[in-house]
């Protein structure tokens, strides 16, 4: 393994589940452990980790590579039957943990041909380990959000009279790349006026009008780690009384939820802080989603900041704080930051201003 | 179902497997049957089809919709346990076919809680049905390839002195959209000179040089159906003797494989026709992939034209014929068309010229 300490974290969690071996399929998790990206498409890909043996990577010969990844490589061809190959390495008299995304076309034959004694979804062992970023990951998260800050400065300049949402969105990738990002962490959301109140809105031919709010929810990938930030601007006119009320309430919910962040508090209590502020302000029903999601190699990783999540924050967690108030047909405001839980409390990873900003 | 005849085709194939019910998870297959796209991400999505009951769609309430799709809708929330909901509709005393992509996080609890008597991967029932395009699908495949022909005319004009592969590639999406396509069917391949001989090459900062071959492997989506075509041009200079030999051999392999196409012949015999021509010409080891893949709603669908596929062509099959010869560091030529098997023989879906063309 490129990173033995990450492997050990996962094996310890497997110990707690009374399992000694697991087949990891998720390319993202395999990258996390080996530093190697492999996208097998419909073909099998599995990293077998075990308390008793060295890791083994099963990979189609189409994706052969020379790098040393600290795991034995077992190659197979499109015409090979992989089950006998798996049987050589998996301990058949023991249970096997499998990845939550392992597909039926692999899992069913493994079960029918008794590759292991029993099978269990042990993805939480991987997911909970990944939710705690180590120092190297934290630094990459900072850099990705720094690029996102720089990009937001430039995105703002794309807003001008007559522009459409799509015209703005289509220029973002080039800006990210010029700043050193490898791509989007998700397709950017650009929403003008009433569109900003529609949670499912994708950038379209809507033309900017004076007085519109301009919601930009954007993120990029830098050195394999994701950023994600939302800012809501106004075009040409100061926001009217209602829009200002919505903005200030959203901002206060964002700020107070962030201010309370330390290790060891229930994630649901953070959601509650923001939700209570918005509810007391009279907009409870207009805050239609959870407060945040975990993020890292993927934009949405296991873990969230929601009313249902009783788990406690841990040092190394990185997640979004993104309250929003959506008034159908009128205005939508969302203010989103990424945060890192630290031993001192927390660190905000992006730094773009949250003051009301009127463009144009 | 939007299309009862498609459902009936699948149920007939299930009959042949002695199964009366199947849970389909693949969003593409669900679109094929209902005309409705739903991308559930990590959440459960299943279309239960049965000989005995009306179809039932299990879908998270986040993706609620009004359209009538000929299936009962069962909504659930993020906090609901879906197993009891499935138990209400699946016949527990019978086997259940499942989709090859069904994830372990759903399949394992379904097995542990005895949602059905047994479980089998019955995706071939869906895949083999989808491999035979009906008249409406054939027409959409024609339209998509027609747009691809028009686009190729414009892509050619992007080639000029000093341009990089990436600069060419980045202009393609706009051209496709201006022609009515909704997007790429896959990320376009633009490869100059020796890069064209690398099967894994992605467009990069390589600058065009006089005498380079210019390989464009491109496709778009029109009305949900994919096109896919490859043409290899030359820049500024007539190809040298070697490049001309490679081009003409590739072209003949493409042409003779297409000329033989009728319903009822083994797909492996089509691959053999092209491979034998290239082998006899002395470039067998330089033709490093299968001759073609099936295509439709997805760029790569179940079914291929390879040495291993004994299946016979059927009226309604649509697949690619794409021989290539790759001479490392020097030149790469691939010529790819999409074909439709008809009762009269076959139809080529794209029409861009395959003559040697020197640009600039």
What order do the helices and strands come in, and which of them pair?
The structure is a homodimer of 360-residue chains.
Chain A: H1 4-16, E1 21-24, H2 27-34, E2 45-50, E3 56-60, E4 72-76, H3 82-89, E5 96-98, H4 104-112, E6 119-121, H5 123-130, H6 135-157, H7 165-170, H8 172-178, E7 183-184, E8 189-192, E9 213-218, E10 220-222, E11 225-226, E12 229-235, H9 241-259, H10 267-280, E13 292-294, E14 301-305, E15 318-321, E16 324-327, E17 331-334, E18 337-342, E19 345-348, E20 358-359
Parallel strand pairs in A: 1-5, 3-4, 5-6, 12-20
Antiparallel strand pairs in A: 1-2, 2-3, 7-10, 8-9, 9-12, 10-11, 13-14, 15-18, 16-17, 18-19
- Please state the overall shape of chain A, judged from the principal axes of the Cα atoms: elongated
Provide the helix percentage of chain A: 25-40%
Provide the CATH topology of the largest domain in chain A.
Creatine Amidinohydrolase
| Measured distance between first and last alpha carbons of chain A | 52 Å
| Strands of chain A, count | 20
